[in-house]
Design goal:
Length: 455
Protein backbone atom coordinates (compact mmCIF):
# COMPACT_ATOMS: atom_id res chain seq x y z
CA UNK A 1 0.00 0.00 0.00
CA UNK A 2 1.13 3.54 -0.61
CA UNK A 3 2.47 5.31 2.46
CA UNK A 4 0.09 8.22 1.90
CA UNK A 5 -3.02 6.10 1.38
CA UNK A 6 -4.83 7.26 4.53
CA UNK A 7 -4.26 10.95 3.82
CA UNK A 8 -7.32 12.96 2.91
CA UNK A 9 -5.80 16.37 3.58
CA UNK A 10 -4.12 16.53 0.20
CA UNK A 11 -4.47 19.38 -2.26
CA UNK A 12 -7.31 19.17 -4.75
CA UNK A 13 -6.12 18.27 -8.26
CA UNK A 14 -7.68 19.77 -11.36
CA UNK A 15 -9.84 17.68 -13.65
CA UNK A 16 -6.78 16.43 -15.54
CA UNK A 17 -5.36 15.02 -12.33
CA UNK A 18 -2.32 17.25 -11.76
CA UNK A 19 -1.57 17.85 -8.09
CA UNK A 20 1.42 18.41 -5.82
CA UNK A 21 2.94 15.66 -3.70
CA UNK A 22 0.69 15.05 -0.66
CA UNK A 23 1.85 15.40 2.89
CA UNK A 24 2.01 12.33 5.08
CA UNK A 25 -1.06 11.89 7.30
CA UNK A 26 -0.96 12.39 11.01
CA UNK A 27 -1.56 9.27 13.04
CA UNK A 28 -4.51 9.33 15.42
CA UNK A 29 -3.81 8.89 19.10
CA UNK A 30 -5.62 6.17 21.01
CA UNK A 31 -7.57 8.80 22.95
CA UNK A 32 -9.33 9.78 19.72
CA UNK A 33 -10.54 6.27 18.86
CA UNK A 34 -14.29 5.87 18.66
CA UNK A 35 -15.97 4.11 21.59
CA UNK A 36 -18.45 1.24 21.42
CA UNK A 37 -21.29 3.55 22.48
CA UNK A 38 -20.32 6.07 19.81
CA UNK A 39 -20.40 3.33 17.18
CA UNK A 40 -23.93 2.39 18.21
CA UNK A 41 -24.92 6.05 18.09
CA UNK A 42 -23.49 6.39 14.59
CA UNK A 43 -25.78 3.57 13.44
CA UNK A 44 -28.79 4.35 15.63
CA UNK A 45 -30.90 4.88 12.51
CA UNK A 46 -30.83 1.10 11.93
CA UNK A 47 -34.04 -0.73 12.80
CA UNK A 48 -33.38 -1.94 16.34
CA UNK A 49 -35.93 -4.74 15.93
CA UNK A 50 -33.87 -6.41 13.20
CA UNK A 51 -30.63 -8.35 13.55
CA UNK A 52 -28.95 -7.04 10.43
CA UNK A 53 -26.23 -9.51 9.54
CA UNK A 54 -26.33 -8.67 5.86
CA UNK A 55 -24.02 -5.66 5.55
CA UNK A 56 -22.64 -6.83 2.22
CA UNK A 57 -25.81 -6.35 0.20
CA UNK A 58 -26.34 -2.64 0.76
CA UNK A 59 -23.63 -1.54 3.18
CA UNK A 60 -24.12 0.85 6.08
CA UNK A 61 -23.50 4.55 6.44
CA UNK A 62 -22.80 6.28 9.79
CA UNK A 63 -24.87 9.29 10.83
CA UNK A 64 -21.87 11.63 10.70
CA UNK A 65 -21.31 10.81 7.03
CA UNK A 66 -25.03 11.15 6.26
CA UNK A 67 -24.86 14.63 7.79
CA UNK A 68 -21.89 15.50 5.59
CA UNK A 69 -23.80 14.21 2.58
CA UNK A 70 -26.77 16.42 3.42
CA UNK A 71 -24.49 19.46 3.55
CA UNK A 72 -23.34 18.73 0.01
CA UNK A 73 -26.95 18.29 -1.10
CA UNK A 74 -27.92 21.63 0.45
CA UNK A 75 -24.90 23.34 -1.11
CA UNK A 76 -26.13 22.15 -4.49
CA UNK A 77 -29.74 23.13 -3.90
CA UNK A 78 -28.77 26.55 -2.59
CA UNK A 79 -27.19 27.61 -5.90
CA UNK A 80 -26.90 24.79 -8.48
CA UNK A 81 -24.95 26.77 -11.07
CA UNK A 82 -22.35 27.91 -8.55
CA UNK A 83 -22.11 24.34 -7.24
CA UNK A 84 -21.58 22.89 -10.71
CA UNK A 85 -19.02 25.41 -11.91
CA UNK A 86 -17.06 25.85 -8.67
CA UNK A 87 -17.49 22.83 -6.38
CA UNK A 88 -18.43 19.60 -8.14
CA UNK A 89 -15.34 18.82 -10.22
CA UNK A 90 -12.76 19.74 -7.53
CA UNK A 91 -14.69 17.75 -4.91
CA UNK A 92 -14.93 14.65 -7.12
CA UNK A 93 -11.23 14.92 -7.85
CA UNK A 94 -10.51 15.13 -4.14
CA UNK A 95 -12.39 11.85 -3.70
CA UNK A 96 -10.50 10.33 -6.64
CA UNK A 97 -7.21 11.42 -5.09
CA UNK A 98 -8.06 9.73 -1.78
CA UNK A 99 -9.10 6.54 -3.57
CA UNK A 100 -5.87 6.60 -5.58
CA UNK A 101 -3.87 6.54 -2.35
CA UNK A 102 -6.11 3.97 -0.68
CA UNK A 103 -5.64 1.45 -3.48
CA UNK A 104 -2.07 2.35 -4.49
CA UNK A 105 -2.81 3.38 -8.07
CA UNK A 106 0.10 5.07 -9.83
CA UNK A 107 -1.90 7.83 -11.47
CA UNK A 108 -5.10 9.61 -10.54
CA UNK A 109 -6.28 9.25 -14.14
CA UNK A 110 -6.49 5.51 -13.51
CA UNK A 111 -9.37 6.16 -11.09
CA UNK A 112 -12.90 6.91 -12.26
CA UNK A 113 -15.82 7.26 -9.87
CA UNK A 114 -19.04 5.53 -10.94
CA UNK A 115 -22.30 4.57 -9.28
CA UNK A 116 -21.51 0.96 -8.46
CA UNK A 117 -19.63 -2.14 -9.57
CA UNK A 118 -22.44 -3.05 -11.96
CA UNK A 119 -21.89 0.22 -13.83
CA UNK A 120 -18.15 -0.49 -13.94
CA UNK A 121 -18.77 -3.95 -15.37
CA UNK A 122 -21.02 -2.44 -18.05
CA UNK A 123 -18.24 0.00 -19.00
CA UNK A 124 -15.64 -2.76 -19.41
CA UNK A 125 -17.93 -5.22 -21.19
CA UNK A 126 -19.34 -2.51 -23.46
CA UNK A 127 -15.76 -1.79 -24.52
CA UNK A 128 -15.24 -5.50 -25.18
CA UNK A 129 -18.38 -5.56 -27.32
CA UNK A 130 -17.09 -2.63 -29.40
CA UNK A 131 -13.85 -4.53 -29.98
CA UNK A 132 -15.89 -7.39 -31.44
CA UNK A 133 -18.11 -5.09 -33.50
CA UNK A 134 -15.19 -3.08 -34.90
CA UNK A 135 -13.18 -6.17 -35.86
CA UNK A 136 -10.43 -5.79 -33.26
CA UNK A 137 -11.55 -9.16 -31.89
CA UNK A 138 -12.61 -12.09 -34.05
CA UNK A 139 -16.09 -13.56 -33.85
CA UNK A 140 -16.00 -16.51 -31.50
CA UNK A 141 -13.08 -15.24 -29.45
CA UNK A 142 -13.53 -15.90 -25.77
CA UNK A 143 -14.35 -14.10 -22.53
CA UNK A 144 -13.93 -16.19 -19.39
CA UNK A 145 -15.80 -15.60 -16.14
CA UNK A 146 -16.45 -17.51 -12.93
CA UNK A 147 -19.66 -19.52 -12.60
CA UNK A 148 -20.34 -17.63 -9.36
CA UNK A 149 -20.06 -14.23 -11.05
CA UNK A 150 -22.62 -11.70 -9.87
CA UNK A 151 -25.97 -12.05 -11.63
CA UNK A 152 -25.90 -8.54 -13.11
CA UNK A 153 -22.44 -9.19 -14.56
CA UNK A 154 -23.73 -12.35 -16.23
CA UNK A 155 -26.56 -10.31 -17.71
CA UNK A 156 -24.03 -7.73 -18.95
CA UNK A 157 -22.14 -10.57 -20.64
CA UNK A 158 -25.37 -11.51 -22.37
CA UNK A 159 -26.23 -7.90 -23.27
CA UNK A 160 -22.80 -6.90 -24.57
CA UNK A 161 -20.37 -9.73 -25.29
CA UNK A 162 -22.61 -12.51 -26.57
CA UNK A 163 -24.65 -10.17 -28.76
CA UNK A 164 -21.45 -8.79 -30.28
CA UNK A 165 -20.21 -12.26 -31.29
CA UNK A 166 -18.05 -13.24 -28.33
CA UNK A 167 -18.10 -16.64 -26.71
CA UNK A 168 -18.48 -16.74 -22.93
CA UNK A 169 -16.99 -19.63 -20.96
CA UNK A 170 -17.87 -20.05 -17.30
CA UNK A 171 -15.38 -21.51 -14.82
CA UNK A 172 -17.21 -24.09 -12.67
CA UNK A 173 -16.20 -23.74 -9.04
CA UNK A 174 -16.78 -26.26 -6.26
CA UNK A 175 -18.82 -25.39 -3.18
CA UNK A 176 -18.18 -26.03 -0.39
CA UNK A 177 -14.56 -25.32 -1.26
CA UNK A 178 -11.55 -26.52 0.72
CA UNK A 179 -8.56 -24.83 -0.93
CA UNK A 180 -7.36 -22.29 -3.47
CA UNK A 181 -5.96 -25.18 -5.51
CA UNK A 182 -9.49 -26.31 -6.39
CA UNK A 183 -10.21 -22.90 -7.89
CA UNK A 184 -6.88 -22.71 -9.72
CA UNK A 185 -7.39 -26.16 -11.25
CA UNK A 186 -10.82 -25.31 -12.63
CA UNK A 187 -9.59 -21.96 -13.91
CA UNK A 188 -6.74 -23.56 -15.85
CA UNK A 189 -9.19 -26.04 -17.41
CA UNK A 190 -11.43 -23.19 -18.56
CA UNK A 191 -8.49 -21.38 -20.19
CA UNK A 192 -7.53 -24.57 -22.04
CA UNK A 193 -11.11 -24.91 -23.24
CA UNK A 194 -11.15 -21.28 -24.37
CA UNK A 195 -8.10 -21.71 -26.59
CA UNK A 196 -9.46 -24.70 -28.53
CA UNK A 197 -9.36 -24.26 -32.32
CA UNK A 198 -6.98 -21.35 -32.05
CA UNK A 199 -9.44 -19.02 -30.36
CA UNK A 200 -8.04 -16.15 -28.33
CA UNK A 201 -9.12 -15.34 -24.81
CA UNK A 202 -9.66 -11.60 -24.92
CA UNK A 203 -10.84 -10.98 -21.37
CA UNK A 204 -11.04 -12.82 -18.06
CA UNK A 205 -13.55 -11.54 -15.50
CA UNK A 206 -12.53 -12.63 -12.01
CA UNK A 207 -14.32 -11.91 -8.75
CA UNK A 208 -12.18 -10.90 -5.78
CA UNK A 209 -14.87 -12.00 -3.34
CA UNK A 210 -17.75 -13.90 -4.90
CA UNK A 211 -21.21 -12.78 -3.90
CA UNK A 212 -23.21 -15.97 -3.50
CA UNK A 213 -21.75 -18.20 -2.26
CA UNK A 214 -19.11 -15.88 -0.82
CA UNK A 215 -15.51 -17.03 -1.18
CA UNK A 216 -12.28 -15.01 -1.40
CA UNK A 217 -10.74 -15.84 -4.77
CA UNK A 218 -6.92 -16.02 -5.20
CA UNK A 219 -6.98 -13.18 -7.73
CA UNK A 220 -3.23 -12.58 -7.88
CA UNK A 221 -2.55 -16.20 -8.74
CA UNK A 222 -5.31 -16.30 -11.36
CA UNK A 223 -4.07 -13.08 -12.94
CA UNK A 224 -0.54 -14.49 -13.11
CA UNK A 225 -1.93 -17.56 -14.87
CA UNK A 226 -3.75 -15.28 -17.32
CA UNK A 227 -0.49 -13.52 -18.14
CA UNK A 228 1.28 -16.84 -18.68
CA UNK A 229 -1.52 -18.17 -20.88
CA UNK A 230 -1.80 -15.08 -23.09
CA UNK A 231 -5.15 -13.78 -21.86
CA UNK A 232 -5.32 -10.29 -23.29
CA UNK A 233 -6.89 -8.40 -20.36
CA UNK A 234 -8.20 -9.08 -16.86
CA UNK A 235 -11.12 -7.36 -15.16
CA UNK A 236 -11.52 -7.94 -11.41
CA UNK A 237 -15.07 -7.48 -10.15
CA UNK A 238 -14.41 -6.75 -6.48
CA UNK A 239 -17.74 -5.34 -5.37
CA UNK A 240 -17.01 -6.29 -1.75
CA UNK A 241 -13.30 -5.68 -1.51
CA UNK A 242 -12.37 -2.23 -0.13
CA UNK A 243 -12.79 -2.32 3.64
CA UNK A 244 -13.18 -6.09 3.49
CA UNK A 245 -9.94 -7.47 2.03
CA UNK A 246 -6.59 -6.20 0.74
CA UNK A 247 -6.80 -3.85 -2.25
CA UNK A 248 -3.53 -2.79 -3.88
CA UNK A 249 -3.49 -2.12 -7.61
CA UNK A 250 0.28 -2.58 -7.98
CA UNK A 251 0.21 -5.88 -6.11
CA UNK A 252 -2.91 -7.32 -7.79
CA UNK A 253 -1.91 -6.35 -11.31
CA UNK A 254 -5.30 -6.29 -13.05
CA UNK A 255 -6.05 -4.23 -16.14
CA UNK A 256 -9.42 -3.20 -14.74
CA UNK A 257 -10.62 -3.35 -11.13
CA UNK A 258 -13.79 -2.14 -9.48
CA UNK A 259 -15.11 -2.03 -5.94
CA UNK A 260 -17.99 -0.34 -4.18
CA UNK A 261 -17.35 2.14 -1.38
CA UNK A 262 -20.90 1.92 -0.04
CA UNK A 263 -20.60 -1.72 1.05
CA UNK A 264 -17.62 -1.89 3.42
CA UNK A 265 -16.19 1.65 3.35
CA UNK A 266 -19.15 3.39 5.01
CA UNK A 267 -20.10 5.70 2.14
CA UNK A 268 -23.80 6.26 1.39
CA UNK A 269 -25.13 4.59 -1.73
CA UNK A 270 -24.02 4.69 -4.31
CA UNK A 271 -20.34 5.03 -5.13
CA UNK A 272 -17.71 2.79 -6.65
CA UNK A 273 -14.47 3.30 -8.50
CA UNK A 274 -13.22 1.73 -11.69
CA UNK A 275 -9.45 1.39 -11.96
CA UNK A 276 -8.15 1.34 -15.52
CA UNK A 277 -4.46 0.52 -15.75
CA UNK A 278 -2.51 3.22 -17.56
CA UNK A 279 -0.90 2.05 -20.78
CA UNK A 280 2.78 3.07 -20.61
CA UNK A 281 2.97 3.28 -24.42
CA UNK A 282 -0.07 5.51 -25.00
CA UNK A 283 -0.40 7.11 -21.57
CA UNK A 284 -4.06 6.13 -21.55
CA UNK A 285 -6.18 3.38 -20.10
CA UNK A 286 -7.97 2.28 -23.23
CA UNK A 287 -10.94 3.62 -25.12
CA UNK A 288 -13.46 3.14 -22.35
CA UNK A 289 -16.55 5.32 -22.04
CA UNK A 290 -19.37 5.78 -19.58
CA UNK A 291 -22.57 4.15 -20.88
CA UNK A 292 -24.46 7.40 -20.20
CA UNK A 293 -23.20 9.78 -22.87
CA UNK A 294 -22.99 13.41 -21.80
CA UNK A 295 -21.29 16.47 -23.26
CA UNK A 296 -18.06 15.25 -21.61
CA UNK A 297 -17.87 12.32 -24.05
CA UNK A 298 -14.35 11.91 -25.40
CA UNK A 299 -12.62 13.66 -22.52
CA UNK A 300 -11.57 10.44 -20.82
CA UNK A 301 -13.55 8.03 -18.65
CA UNK A 302 -12.84 9.86 -15.38
CA UNK A 303 -14.17 13.15 -16.75
CA UNK A 304 -17.14 11.49 -18.46
CA UNK A 305 -18.05 9.72 -15.21
CA UNK A 306 -17.81 12.94 -13.20
CA UNK A 307 -20.76 14.39 -15.10
CA UNK A 308 -23.53 12.20 -16.52
CA UNK A 309 -26.25 14.82 -16.25
CA UNK A 310 -28.24 16.39 -13.45
CA UNK A 311 -28.37 14.01 -10.50
CA UNK A 312 -27.33 13.74 -6.85
CA UNK A 313 -23.53 13.41 -6.73
CA UNK A 314 -23.27 13.79 -2.96
CA UNK A 315 -22.41 10.14 -2.26
CA UNK A 316 -19.28 10.61 -4.35
CA UNK A 317 -18.19 13.70 -2.40
CA UNK A 318 -18.07 12.34 1.16
CA UNK A 319 -15.09 10.03 0.69
CA UNK A 320 -12.98 12.35 2.93
CA UNK A 321 -15.51 11.98 5.75
CA UNK A 322 -15.68 8.21 5.22
CA UNK A 323 -11.90 7.98 5.54
CA UNK A 324 -12.05 10.14 8.65
CA UNK A 325 -14.60 7.75 10.16
CA UNK A 326 -12.46 4.74 9.26
CA UNK A 327 -9.46 6.32 10.96
CA UNK A 328 -11.48 6.88 14.13
CA UNK A 329 -11.48 3.10 14.63
CA UNK A 330 -8.37 1.53 16.09
CA UNK A 331 -5.98 0.39 13.38
CA UNK A 332 -7.95 2.18 10.66
CA UNK A 333 -8.96 0.08 7.68
CA UNK A 334 -6.53 -2.73 8.54
CA UNK A 335 -7.87 -2.96 12.08
CA UNK A 336 -11.45 -3.04 10.85
CA UNK A 337 -10.75 -5.84 8.37
CA UNK A 338 -8.91 -7.91 10.98
CA UNK A 339 -11.56 -7.57 13.69
CA UNK A 340 -14.48 -8.15 11.31
CA UNK A 341 -12.81 -11.26 9.89
CA UNK A 342 -12.09 -12.72 13.31
CA UNK A 343 -15.59 -11.93 14.55
CA UNK A 344 -17.43 -13.40 11.57
CA UNK A 345 -15.39 -16.61 11.79
CA UNK A 346 -16.12 -16.87 15.52
CA UNK A 347 -19.85 -16.33 14.94
CA UNK A 348 -19.88 -18.74 12.01
CA UNK A 349 -18.22 -21.47 14.04
CA UNK A 350 -20.66 -20.86 16.89
CA UNK A 351 -23.60 -21.32 14.51
CA UNK A 352 -22.37 -24.48 12.77
CA UNK A 353 -21.58 -26.02 16.14
CA UNK A 354 -25.11 -25.29 17.30
CA UNK A 355 -26.61 -26.79 14.14
CA UNK A 356 -24.19 -29.66 13.51
CA UNK A 357 -23.20 -28.40 10.07
CA UNK A 358 -20.07 -26.76 8.61
CA UNK A 359 -18.67 -23.58 7.08
CA UNK A 360 -18.58 -23.27 3.30
CA UNK A 361 -14.84 -22.62 3.08
CA UNK A 362 -11.67 -22.50 5.20
CA UNK A 363 -11.00 -19.39 7.29
CA UNK A 364 -8.38 -18.02 4.91
CA UNK A 365 -10.95 -18.00 2.10
CA UNK A 366 -13.29 -15.76 4.07
CA UNK A 367 -13.08 -12.00 4.59
CA UNK A 368 -15.78 -10.25 6.61
CA UNK A 369 -18.42 -12.75 5.54
CA UNK A 370 -18.78 -16.49 5.59
CA UNK A 371 -21.18 -19.21 4.43
CA UNK A 372 -22.83 -21.14 7.27
CA UNK A 373 -24.55 -24.48 6.67
CA UNK A 374 -28.19 -24.68 7.81
CA UNK A 375 -29.81 -27.80 9.32
CA UNK A 376 -30.56 -30.37 6.62
CA UNK A 377 -34.08 -30.89 7.98
CA UNK A 378 -35.08 -27.53 6.49
CA UNK A 379 -35.14 -29.20 3.08
CA UNK A 380 -33.92 -26.28 0.99
CA UNK A 381 -34.40 -27.66 -2.53
CA UNK A 382 -34.43 -24.60 -4.78
CA UNK A 383 -33.58 -20.93 -5.09
CA UNK A 384 -37.24 -20.27 -4.41
CA UNK A 385 -37.02 -22.17 -1.10
CA UNK A 386 -33.97 -20.13 -0.14
CA UNK A 387 -35.75 -16.84 -0.82
CA UNK A 388 -38.88 -17.96 1.00
CA UNK A 389 -36.85 -18.99 4.06
CA UNK A 390 -35.05 -15.65 4.04
CA UNK A 391 -38.38 -13.81 3.97
CA UNK A 392 -39.70 -15.97 6.81
CA UNK A 393 -36.67 -15.19 8.99
CA UNK A 394 -37.14 -11.47 8.33
CA UNK A 395 -40.90 -11.31 8.83
CA UNK A 396 -41.26 -13.66 11.78
CA UNK A 397 -37.97 -13.42 13.66
CA UNK A 398 -36.51 -10.04 12.68
CA UNK A 399 -33.34 -11.58 11.23
CA UNK A 400 -32.00 -10.27 7.92
CA UNK A 401 -29.65 -12.78 6.32
CA UNK A 402 -29.32 -14.07 2.71
CA UNK A 403 -29.89 -17.79 2.10
CA UNK A 404 -28.15 -19.79 -0.63
CA UNK A 405 -29.29 -23.03 -2.25
CA UNK A 406 -26.53 -25.46 -3.17
CA UNK A 407 -27.77 -28.31 -5.39
CA UNK A 408 -26.79 -31.74 -4.09
CA UNK A 409 -24.15 -33.72 -5.96
CA UNK A 410 -24.79 -37.20 -7.31
CA UNK A 411 -24.51 -39.80 -4.58
CA UNK A 412 -24.61 -37.37 -1.64
CA UNK A 413 -26.54 -38.60 1.38
CA UNK A 414 -28.45 -36.02 3.42
CA UNK A 415 -26.30 -33.12 2.18
CA UNK A 416 -26.38 -29.55 3.42
CA UNK A 417 -28.17 -27.68 0.64
CA UNK A 418 -29.03 -24.46 2.48
CA UNK A 419 -26.39 -21.95 3.57
CA UNK A 420 -26.70 -18.60 5.28
CA UNK A 421 -24.30 -15.85 4.19
CA UNK A 422 -23.46 -14.00 7.39
CA UNK A 423 -21.50 -10.75 7.68
CA UNK A 424 -19.85 -8.82 10.46
CA UNK A 425 -19.50 -5.05 10.45
CA UNK A 426 -18.49 -2.72 13.28
CA UNK A 427 -22.10 -2.07 14.36
CA UNK A 428 -22.93 -5.75 14.81
CA UNK A 429 -23.24 -7.33 18.26
CA UNK A 430 -22.98 -10.94 19.39
CA UNK A 431 -26.68 -10.80 20.20
CA UNK A 432 -27.47 -10.48 16.49
CA UNK A 433 -26.03 -13.94 15.85
CA UNK A 434 -27.56 -15.47 18.97
CA UNK A 435 -30.93 -14.25 17.73
CA UNK A 436 -30.32 -15.98 14.40
CA UNK A 437 -29.15 -19.17 16.14
CA UNK A 438 -32.21 -19.24 18.39
CA UNK A 439 -34.59 -18.59 15.49
CA UNK A 440 -33.20 -21.55 13.56
CA UNK A 441 -33.27 -23.75 16.67
CA UNK A 442 -36.90 -22.83 17.23
CA UNK A 443 -37.76 -23.75 13.66
CA UNK A 444 -36.01 -27.10 14.06
CA UNK A 445 -37.87 -27.77 17.31
CA UNK A 446 -41.16 -26.94 15.57
CA UNK A 447 -40.46 -29.42 12.77
CA UNK A 448 -40.11 -26.69 10.18
CA UNK A 449 -39.42 -27.50 6.51
CA UNK A 450 -39.45 -25.21 3.48
CA UNK A 451 -42.31 -27.22 1.99
CA UNK A 452 -44.56 -25.86 4.75
CA UNK A 453 -44.07 -22.29 3.49
CA UNK A 454 -44.88 -23.15 -0.10
CA UNK A 455 -48.32 -24.51 0.69
Amino acid sequence: MASEKNNHHRSIPDINGTHPTPKKPKLSSSSNFITASEIQSEFSHHDSAVSRINNGSFGSCPSSILSAQQQWQLKYLRQPDHFYFNHLKPAINNSRSIIQNLVNAKDINEISIVDNATTAAAIVLQHTAWCFREGKFNKGDVVVMLHYAYGAVKKSMEAYVTRAGGKVIEVPLPFPVSSNDEIVTEFRKALEKGKVDGKKIRLAVIDHVTSMPCVVIPVKELIQICREEGVEQVFVDAAHSIGCTDVDMQDIGADFYTTNLHKWFFCPPSIAFLYTKKNPKTGGGGDLHHPVVSHEYGNGLAVESAWIGTRDYSAQLVVPEALEFVNRLEGGIEGIKKRNHEAVIEMGEMLVKAWGTHLGSPKHMCASMVMVGLPTCFGVRSDSDALTLRTHLRDVFGVEVPIYYRPPRDGEVDPVTGYARIFYQVYNKVEDYYKFRDAVNQLVDNGFACTLLSK
